[in-house]
Design a protein that fits this description.
Layout: H1 3-11, E1 19-20, H2 31-47, H3 49-55, H4 57-71, E2 78-81, H5 84-94, E3 102-105, H6 111-119, E4 123-126, H7 137-146, E5 151-155, H8 167-177, E6 181-184, E7 199-203, E8 215-219, H9 221-224, H10 251-267, H11 269-288, E9 293-295, E10 306-310, H12 316-327, E11 329-330, E12 332-334, E13 352-355, H13 363-374
Parallel strand pairs: 1-11, 3-4, 3-5, 5-6, 6-7
Antiparallel strand pairs: 2-8, 7-8, 9-10, 10-13, 12-13
Helix pairs in contact: 2-3, 2-10, 4-10, 5-6, 7-8, 11-13
């Protein structure tokens, strides 16, 4: 894809007041997405919330179809909720797991996911991984044959440092052994393609650059009959997974997401993924030549997200604040709670600075952040 496409991507968004290197927290929505969200909110005030939702039904139906394609599902298998976290909670509420079930996870599993699992009485089990934290597929195949957990939960892209897991391969191994695989795509939907999973959940607000307050959950056909779903008298005939939709919903956000997803599909998910891999490579190359900072596992599989750690005694949290206040550069300081189980050779738990630019980042942008980091 030509560089002009990424220039147009940037031009389609309000002019930023900052250099935005924080898509992994919240991406920059396009003006069209923002306008659609605002227009629906205005319609709710003018015509009534439920009337407005009814009028938006064709857009919302199209959104569900588009999301199904992104998550490797079908239309009947997709629920729209408030967030990726809400999707995981809904999944745990309806999936027929035994009491105290074991959940196989990678060493870098997202800390809040672990907290939710433990709150529901489940037991996370750390799976074997290589020195970069990538799941060892050979070891996993043996584990699934000899001592399988009740379910596998894999973050396709780790939130704290952008590590990409071989999610499609994990799903294939799980299905071959009869162990369901749940895939967290909060950091990968719109970033790294996925063919599907037994359950897949994610969010609107990151790489898809949709509004906040919208999440997605897809459940594969083989598991729907066993779901413990409440069927209210109000909507008894809805498809099983649709019963998991949040009723008191941010419908305006869903309308906005429908626009954002269409924009993403128009660019081409594979082309976007290719560009984001290039963005990550260019970011790591730029930081790699900078004194005082070190890229975390620069050779590990990754997309556009990179994590760096100080090598000269700097405080990553204070650096994140200084970049924003003095240089108008938005990043995230990632503390160890984001991946509390991660303990890898040569990678001690410590604050990291996360950089996650989108497709429009330029060489000048990367030079700017390097100059700013050199001030520490």
């Amino acid at each position: 894809m030509h560089e002009d496409d990424w220039t147009r991507w940037a031009a389609a968004r309000p002019h930023p007041s900052v250099l935005h290197l924080d898509t992994a927290a919240a991406g920059r929505a396009s003006s069209a997405t923002l306008d659609a969200t605002a227009a629906h909110a205005r319609l709710e005030a003018e015509a009534g919330g439920y009337v407005a939702e009814g009028r938006a039904a064709p857009v919302l139906d199209r959104l569900r179809r588009d999301v199904a394609g992104l998550l490797g599902s079908d239309v009947e298998g997709v629920a729209l909720v408030e967030s990726a976290t809400a999707a995981l909670v809904a999944l745990l509420r309806v999936w027929p797991l035994p009491e105290g079930a074991s959940v196989g996870v990678a060493p870098g599993e997202w800390g809040p996911n672990l907290e939710i699992l433990e709150h529901h009485g489940l037991t996370p089990v750390v799976l074997a991984a290589d020195a970069d934290g990538v799941l060892d597929l050979d070891a996993l195949e043996v584990r699934l044959r000899t001592e399988p957990p009740d379910v596998l939960l894999v973050d396709q892209v780790a939130a704290h440092r952008g590590l990409v897991q071989p999610a499609d391969d994990v799903v294939a191994l799980g299905r071959a052994s009869g162990v369901p695989v749940w895939v967290d795509v909060a950091q990968s939907s719109g970033h790294v393609p996925l063919r599907g999973g037994d359950a897949v959940f994610g969010t609107s607000r990151k790489w898809l650059t949709g509004p906040r307050g919208v999440g997605m959950l897809a459940i594969a056909p083989d598991h729907r009959a066993a779901l413990r779903v409440l069927r209210p008298a109000k909507h008894p005939d809805l498809p099983t997974v649709h019963q998991l939709d949040s009723g008191e919903a941010h419908v305006a956000g869903r309308v906005g997401l429908a626009v954002a997803v269409r924009e993403h599909l128009g660019l081409g998910p594979d082309r976007v993924a290719e560009r984001l891999r290039e963005v990550g490579r260019l970011t790591r190359e730029a930081i790699g030549s900078l004194g005082g900072w070190e890229v975390v596992r620069p050779g590990a599989p990754a997309g556009a997200t990179s994590a760096i750690v100080p090598t000269a005694g700097q405080d990553a949290v204070r650096t994140q604040e200084r970049l924003l206040q003095e240089h108008s550069i938005v990043t995230t300081a990632c503390l160890p709670w984001r991946a509390p189980l991660e303990s890898l050779p040569g990678l001690r738990p410590q604050p990291m600075l996360r950089l996650s630019p989108h497709v429009d980042v330029t060489a000048d942008d990367l030079e700017r952040v390097c100059r700013a980091l050199s001030g520490d």
